[in-house]
Amino acid sequence: AKLLVALALCGTASAYVAPAAPKAVGALNSKAELEALAEGNGDFLGSTLGFWDPLGISDQDFWNLGNEGTIGYLRHAEIKHGRVAMAGFLGFLAQCTPIVSGEHALPPYRGYVAGVTPQEQWDNIPLIGKLQIFTFVGMLESYGEGAGQPDGYVHYTKGGLPGYFPPIEGRIGPFPIGNLNLYKPFDIFPEQSEDEKARGRQVEINNGRLAMLGLISLLTESNGLIVPPLDGIEGFPKYAGNVMIPFSADFSLY
């Protein structure tokens, strides 16, 4: 738990920048780089905390990766958790609206029930649907770890850019999928300067940290605990289950 808190609040990390694949730069994940990134973060959260590492995890060596490899792993983990939290926070809000949780002319899945909480919506999804979601996420995770061996890819524990997800290339049967860049899927964003990219990395890190705290706050209040100011919202969705047991509605080992 302390490690997760440290990751959420650690004053340094570098986020995803595409489209070019990152080159291997050993010093990229050094502790000195972390300190420089923290000092260069001019937003309120970054400038207030600075380089904050009370547990000394930036000096550790996980799984014999070496210190720089460990720092790369931790930076990538924070970025990934921040992205998931941003999606989860917005998803929770969206699933609380009648557009998503209300009645549908065509139910989104078998057994759909309108007017329930976001967590109950997940519980009501058939097991096969949940497994499809987990399989899709696992495929993305595997590809992001370099399973597809994309050209120029360098793993984040070996000097690559933490948070980088390589463009998806290949074929679906006889059909080529071309180059699917999740950062610019339709090439709708203009090219950015290096300063703009650096600013974007800081914004993503800070937003991800805030989203991690925000999502935990939503889930905590939903479980009946008091989380100001959420406890003052009339009709805040309550959930009696445990979000850490995602398949409890399908089977249990206890």
From TrEMBL:
PANTHER family: CHLOROPHYLL A/B BINDING PROTEIN
Protein name in UniProt: Putative plastid light harvesting protein isoform 44
Domain of life, source organism: Eukaryota
Function: The light-harvesting complex (LHC) functions as a light receptor, it captures and delivers excitation energy to photosystems with which it is closely associated. Energy is transferred from the carotenoid and chlorophyll C (or B) to chlorophyll A and the photosynthetic reaction centers where it is used to synthesize ATP and reducing power.
Listed SUPFAM superfamilies: Chlorophyll a-b binding protein
Classification via InterPro entries: Chloro_AB-bd_pln, Chloroa_b-bind
Signal sequence coordinates: 1-15
Alphabetized UniProt keyword annotations: Chlorophyll, Chloroplast, Chromophore, Photosynthesis, Plastid, Signal
Family: Belongs to the fucoxanthin chlorophyll protein family.
Compartments where found: Plastid, Chloroplast
GO MF term list: chlorophyll binding
GO cellular component, one term: chloroplast
Residues annotated as binding chlorophyll a: W52, S58, E78, H81, R83, L127, E204, N207, R209
Any single biological process term in GO: photosynthesis, light harvesting
